[in-house]
Structures are given as structure tokens and as C-alpha cells.
Fold these 2 entries.
Entry 1:
Amino acid sequence: MNYPAWVVNLGKQINAEILSHLNWIGIPTSPEDGSTECSKKTESFRLLDYACGEGQISRGIFNYVDEAWGVDLSARMVESYNQHATTFNVPERKRMFAVQGDMLASGENNMSRFTGKEWFGFDVAIMSMALHHVISPDHAVKMLVERVKEGCSVLIVDWISGTTERPTRCEHNAGAGEMPGAQTTTREGFTKAEMEKMLLDAGCQDVGFMQAREPSYLDLGEQRLRRTLFLAKGKKGKGGSTKV
């Protein structure tokens, strides 16, 4: 798909932030890296990329995982994710794929595909730029914690609420139109306190929150918005969410 330049730049910024903080998140940077509990593994290091879109996150950190499992509501996004996976030169011992579905829905038909043991025990779960679209974000966080192993991490990337500014007029109209997904946005973003509470309530320990090093710029028609991203992480503790 062809995206406006600001969308492409935002994706690059998010991947750069994640790659700069792998150890902080809990993703080992080498097979010998013992800095995280999830480093001490005998099986494949598996990523759950929830609301995966076309797989930007999966491809961005694929060098540091053995398997990337994507889930998205959109059949079109899943198709694009899997097309990218076929051209991404995935080594034979690795896996990268996505399926359509909603892990937050309670309908029997939808949930049945996610009840198998293969959909649990992930080494890291990431939800990027999607939590502000969810009606019940605390439920989404609990679901992600449910899906990872004890001692392993959940990472949320989203906007810090209250940080939207309109510093300049966008004369070149580079990203005309609405922000992707604007029609389904349920809130502007989240505060540090809100994210920490959601992660702690879901049974996480070692909760952390950091602001992106640089602001993000969104060119929407004639408006240029300046916003601030955050990364929030927590490690599933004993007794952490096991059933949503």
C-alpha cells in the first residue's frame, strides 16, 4: 500500500525506538544474552504481534526473534503481512505469518482459533499504535499478559495523551486526509499513570514507561500535528493474568 510520508516516517521511528531498547523491553540481542528471563530458553523465541497491520513491527525486530505470529482484524492487512513474509527472506528455521481475528472478542467462532496451546506461552507480545482504538484498553492489556510466559514481556507503543500540538501549517498537503484509523479512535492516548496501572493490574512486574526521544509529526491535510510516542512495558509475574 502507498502511505503518506509521515506514516512511513512514523513507522521507522517506532522501529528505531524498539530496537534501541531491546534489553529494556526484555528481548535478547544474541543467543548468549542472559539479561532477561526469557533469554533462558530451550525453544524458539516467539513474538505475538497483535494488531500487526502489514507487519512493520515483526519485520523490524525479526533478527531478534525466531517466530513472529501476527493477528489483525483486517483481512487485507493480514494478506499484506503474509505477502511481505514471503519476500522477506525468512530463514528456513524461522517462521513469520499472520491470521485474521480478534483475541478480544468473546464470540465462540472467533475465539476458538485462539484457544489452542500454541497461542499461549509467547516470549514477548507487542501492540503498537492500536490500544487507543480499543474500547476496553485494560482488557486488551490483560489479554496480552495472558498470552506470554511468566517472566516475559508485554510492550505497548502509543501516544501520550495531552501532547498534541499544532506548531505549523502544512502547506505542501503531503498527507492529505484523515489519520489512518481515525474513525475508530476511542481516545487521544494514555498517561504514564494509566499505563502503569493497567500493566500492574494485569499482573505485571518490572513495569516501565519511556517517552520517545523525538516528537512525531502528522501531516493531515493542511494541519501538521506534533505528538509524542511512548513505550510501556511490563513483565508477567507469578499469578499474572492467565484468563481474560
Note: The first strand starts at residue 46 and ends at 50.
Entry 2:
Amino acid sequence: MSDLVAEFDSLLQSSDFLFVIYYRGHWCPFCVAYLKSLQSFASEITAANGKPLVVTSEKEVHLVATRTGSKYNGTAIVDTKNILAAELKKRGLIDVAISNKGGYEHGMAQPAVLVIKKDGSILYKWSINPSYVSTSICLISLTMLWGKRALTSVCTRMKMNLGGAKDRPDPKQIWENVNAQLHEKPVAHEKLHTLGIWTGISQAVLG
């Protein structure tokens, strides 16, 4: 068994549940904002005898920057070979998408959330699909063509979730639903709010 898998199992057995978030890297403002949100209610997870955990395939040298930007001070696993992601998929717990990206020798783990109890039961899971259906965006402009006015359009195709960046479920709302389940109460949110592009822009501009 890999040391990283053993570490994960040890963390799980030492608490009632793990609240796991996979993130892309310190350079991703959406990820930093997501971990910043996690840190804001991490004490509530701990009070419920759970443990917050973040996992990344980014090199460990960048972990300090991630912690500085997000203020997250909890447990982190650096898995540059995506060994843990493969094991979680093998166990049927969650399928974390792995994408090709420069600087990630064995691929970059995409955003995912897994809330799992000590007995292996899953309270919540979600993973992004970076190949989400793309959409066409057309810019229409009025131009002059041979002395006559004409409408022209320039169309481009882009991934609706920016290749795995946005459209993530609100982590605070995830926790509120999980906490309700732990107390055998109805979930607080039937439909979770998703974090859009402004989340990343705000983080990039305002920090």
C-alpha cells in the first residue's frame, strides 16, 4: 500500500469523517477562494469530530503559496503521481479527473469534493468534468464593407466551466447539508449554489 493511501486511511480512522477537497494549484484563484471558504468553517468540522483535508497533485514547493493565499492551515496531502486519486476510484468512492498540464508530470488532479465517514459511507461527493459541453460565443459588430454597412460575427468555442475552474458547489452549503445528515435532519439545501466566474475574479483582484 502506498504511503499516501496509508496516510489517508489513517486520517479517516482517526476521526468520524473526512471533508476532502481536491484543488488544482496555487495559481488557480478559484481553488484559493474555495480553500479560503473551507478554512472559514473548518472549526465546525473539527467540532463535529471530523477533519478537513485538501489534496493536490501540484508540487509540494507550492503548498506554502496555497496556504498563504487561502489561509488554510489544516491537513494537506501532496500527491504528484495521483496515487490516491487512483485508489479512491478503485474503491468506487470518487473519480477525480486528471488532465494534462505543464508542470504536472503525471497529470493535474481536477477539483473534487468527498465527504466520507469512518465506516466508508459517503455523505457527499462531487467531481468536475473539465470536458463539460462547450458553447459558442459570438460577437456581432457593425462594420463597413466596400462602402456599405454590414453585420459581421466572430464566434469562438469555450468550455462552459473554463476547463474545470468554475461551477463548483458552494463548500459552505455542502457542509451545512453534511452537518444536517450527521444530526439526522433534513438537508438545508435541496440544490447547491455553484460558484461562478466572479469568485475567481474577486480572488485574483482582491485576494
Note: The first strand starts at residue 17 and ends at 22.
